[in-house]
Design a protein that fits this description.
The chain is 26% helix and 22% strand. With 188 residues, it is an alpha+beta fold. The longest helix is centred in the first third of the chain and has 16 residues.
Amino acid sequence: MAKILTLLITLCLIVSVRSAHSQPDLRNNVAAVYNSQIGVNERGGNNRGPEVKQYLASVNLSEGYAWCGAFANWVMKQCGMQAPKGAAMAMAWFPNSKTIWKRSRKDNATPQRGDLFALYYNSLGRIGHVGFIEKWDYGDGYAITVEGNTNDAGSREGDGVYRKRRLIRQLYAVSDWITASGGGALNL
C-alpha cells in the first residue's frame, strides 16, 4: 500500500510541475489518489488513526476533529494543487468563483471526475460535508462519490473513506478546483 501511494504521489507531483499539465491527466491523478484511500478507517474511533492523522495534519489540526475537508485538502496537496484558506471546513471548498453546479440552478455545468460536492445541513445552517465526484449520471439521477469521514449510511460523522452512490438531488453544490478558470463558476 505504501509503495502504491508513493508512486501515486510522485505521479501527481510530476504532472503538477509541468508548465502545461492537461486537465484530463490531472483529473485522473486526483482520482487515483482519492481512490487509493478507499477502505481507510479510523482506529480507536473519534476521528483518530494514522491516515486520519495525516489528513488532519495537512490542515494543521490534530486528531479528534471532523476530517472530510482535511481529506479533500490532503488529496489535492498530493497532486501539488492549492487548497482554499480554511480547507478543514467543508464550506471553504465552495467559493462562488469555483462553484459550477448548484441544486437550485438551471444553468449548471456538468460536474466531472475530481470535482468536489457539498451536502448542506439545515441543522447547521451551512455546508457540512465535502467529498469527490467520481461519476455524474443525470440519466439515473445518481452521483458516485469518494469521501472521507463518512460511513455506509452516508453520515458526515463517519469512520472512514468510502465510495458512495448519492442521489444528485440531495447534493447542494459542486466546485471545480481542477480547471484553471474554475470551470465557469456560478454565484451561490
